[in-house]
Amino acid sequence: MMAPAHISIAQVKAAVAAYFQIAEMELVSRRRSPGSAIPRQVAVYLAATLCRGSYAEIGAAFHRDHSTAIHAKKVIETRMLDDAELVLAVERIKAQILSRAFHPNDHEALASRLVIDTAAAFRTAGLALAATDPAAVLRLVAPVAAAFGIDLAEAVP
Questions:
Q1: 33 with 58: CB under 8 angstroms?
Q2: Which end of the chain has fewer CB atoms within 10 angstroms, the N or the C?
Q3: Residue 3: what pLDDT?
Q4: How far is Cα 155 from Cα 17, in angstroms, rounded to an integer?
């Protein structure tokens, strides 16, 4: 399996801005409204988990200091424990970023990463749905799979 190419903070910013339908400049603005703060915190979280930069570099990319970057990552991690919609949003954005970071013909790596990240998202959010409600799992995974062009209807008996 091939490793992903280097993922830049700029790639994360672009994907988050596109997902939340805001201008990338909103991610570096001083605004603290939920419409700006939540996407910015998600972008910092994803930059911290996907990029090779330090918290100082990540903070600087968002016009913040390293302690604000650390705090933003912790805020998203905490919110994801109780907010399945946020987990899904983060996983959709991550899937989009990763789909561009892998070699386009490396479908095995993409599928493997999708499964690993989705399982991690379920664990993070405390969603023990797989054993109790397989249909709920499919509802949560379907949008992410669709981002990869995977039709789950063919995979489900």
A1: no
A2: C
A3: 41
A4: 32
Contacts of 101 (CB under 8 A, 6+ apart): 4, 5, 7, 11
Is the four-CA dihedral 130, 133, 139, 145 of positive or negative sign? positive
Question: 9-80: what fold?
Answer: Chromosomal Replication Initiator Protein Dnaa; Chain: A; (1.10.1750)
Q: Which of 38, 112, 118 is nearest to 78 (CA)?
A: 38
Q: Which residues contact 84 (CB under 8 A, 6 or more apart)?
A: 125, 127, 140
pTM (2 decimals)? 0.67
Q: Cα(66)–Cα(22) distance, rounded to whole angstroms?
A: 24
Q: Hey, where are the domains in the chain? A: 9-80, 84-155
Residue 157: which pLDDT band, with cuts at 50, 70 and 90? very low
Instruction: Answer with the residue of higher pLDDT: 25 or 131.
Output: 25
Tokens representing 119? 């399982």
Map tokens 């790596």 to a residue.
Answer: 109
Contact 27, 43 (CB under 8 A): yes
Helix pair angle (34-50, 84-101), 10° resolution = 50
